Structures are given as structure tokens and as C-alpha cells.
Fold this protein.
Amino acid sequence: MYNLLISLGIATLAFAIGALVTGTFIAGFIPAVLALVGAYIYLARRTSQKLQASMERVGETLKKIRPEDPPQLRKQRLDEAIQILEESRRFGRWQFLVEATVNSQLGALAYVQQDFKKARPYLEKAWMRDWTAHTMLAVMDWREKKIDDAVKRLEKVSGPAKKEAVFWGIYAWILAESDRRDAALAVVSRALKEMPESEAIKGLQDALSNKKKIRTNLFAPMWYTFFPEQVPMQRLMAPPTRGKGYPMPRR
């Protein structure tokens, strides 16, 4: 990407100057390394700040969306957020992982609207350690009865998501709903090792151990990001909380 290429160019110049001044190639190595690292950090930070500004604009746009808004107004604001995200792709020419971040956000927007067909190709282009995007894909696999595929996806991001109670809740719930209760209990045991104080995971363990119905509201409101179709009717009808609106994009 451009940031790396520019940094390499600066490093090459620093190497040449060092070598010419001292008359030895070895003397140019240290300034070249320092120039490469320093230039790349500066340029990467600058690109990151620009991307963050775009994400903040997306967030402000999504905050304006309310359940009681007319469909046309909701669509208009969503389209505005999508346009901002698409414009942010230009930063991908400068910095690694920007494209993956934008695709993840676009996929998440389509997902929470329950447009799963549209969401999948975007989410599949997310960074491999983006646990939220890959958990959404796993839930879609589960909906399509592809249980083994769902489990494989969840395993791949179990490292990045190990401190996220909702991740373990979804993992165990998918297994339990697929008649794999023993496997679900094994997942809960892993979760408790990572988050021994989590009341939600303790409640999940109690439900599975005693063959009770799992209370998914233990993981609310984050749970409904992955299962928008399960949002309780009373929540949809509740008046909006000041400062809260559509799910904010992740950075």
C-alpha cells in the first residue's frame, strides 16, 4: 500500500545518505530502519485518523435512525451511512485492512436489517480476526442448517473473542439448539476459564446443566445484533433513549 511504499522510499533515501556520508553501506542501515519505522507509524496513524473520522460520521448518521421513523427516512439515512463507508474505501490504497474494515461494516449494516443474502459477501471479506463479522456468518450458517460450518467459524475466532460473553453465549446456544448439549457444556467450561466472574455465562451453565431453556436476554442487548429477528416486541415499541439509535459501527 502507499504508506508502506512511501516509507520504503524514505528508508532508501536515509540509507543512501548514511552510506554516502560515512562511505560504508553498514552505516546506512540503522538510519534506514529508523526512517522506515518512523515514517510508517506516522503515515499509518494519519490514515487511521481519517478513517476514524469517517466512522464517526457513519455513527452520527445511524444515531438519527429511530424505529418510529417513516421507512423512506430510515432508508435515506442508511443509504447516507453506506455512501460514507463506500467513500472510505479510498483509504484502502494507503493502509492495510481498511478494505476489510469497510466490508465488515457494510455487512453488519445489511445483517441487522436481516438482509442476510446481501450481508454474507461483505462479511466474508472481513479480517480473519474480526470475531463479530465471523460470528454473524456462523449464525447465518446455523440458520441454513450448516452446523459444522458454523462451529468451524466460531472456533477460528474463539481466540479474539475469548473475553466476549455474548460470543460464548452464541456458540453454546447454537450447539444446544442443534442437539449438541454436551458440546455446548464443554464450550461453557472454556468460557468460564476465560471469564469466571461472568453472571451471563454462569446463568448459561445453569440452564444447560439443568436442561432448562437458555435465557438469551442474559446477553442483551448485544445478543440482538446477531439475532435481530429475536428483538422483543416491547423493545421495538419502547420510546428511544436519548443518544441511542441504530447500532454504532465498530472501529
Q: What stands out?
A: Confidence is low (pLDDT under 50) at residues 234-251. DSSP finds twelve helices and no strands in the chain. The radius of gyration is 23 Å. Residues 29-63 form the longest helix (35 residues).
